[in-house]
Amino acid sequence: MRQSIRGRFTLIFIGLMAIILMGIWSINNLMLESFYIDQKVSALKLAYDRMDFLVMESLENGRTIGDEFDGSSSLDSGEQTEAGELLKKLNDTYNIMTVIVDGINDKVIVSSARDAKFMLDKARQYILGENNHRADTIEEAENYTIQKTYDARSRTFYLECWGFYSDNNTIFIMSTPLESIRESVDLSNRFLAYVGIVALVFSSVIVYFTTKRITSPILKLANISERMSGLDFDVKYEGKSIDEIGVLGNNMNRLSDKLKETIGELKSANNELQKDIEEKIQIDEMRKDFIANVSHELKTPIALIQGYAEGLTEGMAEDEESRNYYCEVIMDEANKMNKMVRQLLTLTALEFGNDQVTLERFDVVELIQGVLSASGIMIQQKNAKIQFDGGHPVYVWADEFKIEEVITNFVSNALNHLDGERVIRIDVQELGDNVKVTVKNTGDHIPENELPNIWVKFYKVDKARTREYGGSGIGLSIVKAIMDSHHKEYGVQNVEDGVEFWIMLDSKDSF
To answer: What is the pTM of this model?
Structure first.
């Protein structure tokens, strides 16, 4: 079902408005009361500081704060002084009731509360530590304490500030109810809900209808693009607007004309080029694979030939028997290179389905011993310890040369990645109708996420180390191609102290 941009605009607007309203409502519920209390605490502290200043000012002038009220405890009697105006403002503006008491004579100096005696008794209890009211201290200073108190008589919470002024004789208590803020929060949220719902509905209707002017030309352009995707280039945008949508429509008209003109030419050219490109890619890939495989696989025989030839040159073989042995190894490796080149060509053909596997019965133990013998110089150079128990023949059905390539690649790979105890262990296990050959070397593990990729051509786990010993990342891809051509399993796994490669071979003697 197609989703309308118009509908989405409206839903997004409704969602945003709803989130904003809910946010305001939540903030009112969670923070307004705390904010109100903070403001009341600030007002109480400010009132204390101002009244304390007036008390100390009177004291410096040789008077007491009681003299400011002419002996009357009422705020409405007589001429108002600065202290009286302050208490009246606290009462009228901030709803803060104040009682000031002469501590020496235990007499109320002035009171803005209706029940001055009750508040005086509370102040005495607080000072004497005989507080029978449930109170939570909010702030405690040297001369005063601000606390939240519950009054069981009125079932109301009050914010109170009590203590002494700096003259240490004048006692005071200030009190303001907190119940009104909760009523204010409820009224505010209720009013906000009513106004918000009305505003949300009204604005959503307006947004829904006004977005039609935006979405209508967009729908026309969408229809044009859909027809253009079906190669219908006769359709045109006919809008007259000069805004961004109009510019887009005119550009689509020009694009349609240009596409109509060139797409025909491209179709014919593409058909001809596609065939040439595919042939070229295939040839290039075959050439690259062939060169890379040959370069990789010939390195070991060439190294052996070079080593034995240098030995002959340097006079390492002084007797005729040793010289004959060196020459035999050189000729043997040369023959292997010749055979290897022919088999690499066969392997390339095999990957493209043009080669067939020649199955024959042979002793895999003897084959492994031959590989180890041919790699003797490299084994000595790497200081490797070979562990292989070839006690009895184990016959398998496979392409002998290709399996020799697999074992050679495994041994060469193991030599190049030796570490730790520098041990290479080769095992041949008979498992019913199959034979499992494993080549394990001690050394670093291959990262688990890299294991599936090591069979990919040219892939190198450790590029720096591969360059160090001259690897090209082809050897294991040749193993994969050979085992796939045999339709047999192969794999690699990290073991306790190294890495183990394995293949499965057929031991059945009937096909």
So the answer is: 0.39
